[in-house]
Amino acid sequence: MLVWILILSSWLAMLALILHDATKEDSEGSVILIAAKNLKAFIFLVMQKSLSKPLAKVATAVKAVSSSSKPSGPSGPSGPSEIKQPPAVPPKKRWRKERRVSLATPELELAILEAVKKAAPGCEDFAGVIVRHKKPKSHLDPNWAIRGVKFGNADRPMAKEALAGVVERMQREFLLSDD
């Protein structure tokens, strides 16, 4: 019996691995990740319902006892306070506010040009860049990329190195607006 359980569990693990590998590029995530999220939500819902029922019974019992007894002590004439139930629905996830500044294409190209010119000696004659929109893979990825570089009379190796650092930093700071 133990051997059959081990064989079945290995087959299930292999099937899960194949499903995960085949669907990992989907926009919602792999099938296994979606199933795990749904299972987690189901367990949370079941736990929330099972916890809320006893609290409701306790709250009605407290109301019944407090109405039958005379008020005394620091609670005053209004009686003891009721037990508050926790909210049944978990709070919504709040996305972080976007901290990147949105710029138009010419403004972003000019900002990159000025930053590269100041970044290293030998880059004063750098002519500029061409920026294009790019579809981000996730919420935090940049929505733009360098399409072309105009080196002018600048030292190419020095300008390439300076440009790489400037672009990496600016992709964390700026978004390309929809023109």
Which secondary-structure class do the elements indicate? mainly alpha
The proportion of strand residues reads 5-15%
User: How many whole angstroms does the radius of gyration measure?
Assistant: 31 Å
Mean pLDDT: 79
**If strands are numbered along the chain, what order do they take across the biggest sheet?**
1-4
Are there runs of 5+ residues with pLDDT below 50, and where?
none
Order of helices and strands: HHEHEEHE
- What is the tally of helical segments? 4
Biggest beta sheet attributes? 2 strands, parallel
Helix content: 40-55%
- DSSP strand tally: 4
Shape from CA axes?
elongated
- Distance, first to last CA: 67 Å
Task: Detail the topology: elements first, then pairings.
Elements (H helix, E strand, L loop, with lengths): L1 H22 L7 H38 L32 E3 L1 H15 L8 E6 L10 E7 L5 H18 E3 L3
Parallel strand pairs: 1-4
Antiparallel strand pairs: 2-3
Describe the structure.
There is one protein chain. Helix content is 52%, strand content 11%. The chain is mainly alpha-helical and 179 residues long. The N and C termini lie far apart (67 Å).
Short synopsis of the structure:
The protein is mainly alpha-helical and 179 residues long. It has helices at 2-23, 31-68, 105-119, 156-173; strands at 101-103, 128-133, 144-150, 174-176.
Notable traits:
elongated; mainly alpha; 179 residues; two-stranded parallel sheet
